[in-house]
Every structure is written in structure tokens, then in C-alpha cells.
Amino acid sequence: MKLSIVNGILLSPLTISHNGKSITLESVIIDTGSAHTWVNLDSVENVLDVSPQEGDHIITAFGIGGRDVADRKRIDQIQFAPFEDWTSSPAVR
Fold it and tell me: Which helix (H) or strand (E) holds 22?
């Protein structure tokens, strides 16, 4: 996996693992100013079981494009760029 910058936007492949299944999205925007990580449900719902369920939290976010509402869900694991284990070293490799 490799970070890239396209037109000033930081991009990375992102692997999401949940309930024993995984999917890799090849080009995801890394928004360092965002309070949440957003993943479009359409891009993962055929592989991962992440559909909204009773008890999930609904959140509202505000940004340049206006406001958006999303289902907040805890995911088992994510991996992007060369960052496989954030706890192994205090230095960025």
C-alpha cells in the first residue's frame, strides 16, 4: 500500500476488516482535518455486513459541502498506506 498526492489531495488504499471479511478500497481521501472517518456504504455493503442496525448511533457532520448524516459503526480493523501497527513505534516510518 502506498500514499499518493493527486492535485494536492492525500490518497491511500484502505483495507477494512469486519466480522471476518475484508475489502480494500484502492483510492480513499485521507482528510486530516475531519473529526470522523467516512466510508460510503455503497462501496462496502456487498462484502461487509455494515448495514444500519438497531442501537447504532446516528451522527451529523458539517463541512464545505454542507451537512451529512451517517450511521456510526465500530469496525474491527482498518489499514492504510504503510501504517500497519500504530502502537509498535512512536516514530513514523
Answer: strand 21-29
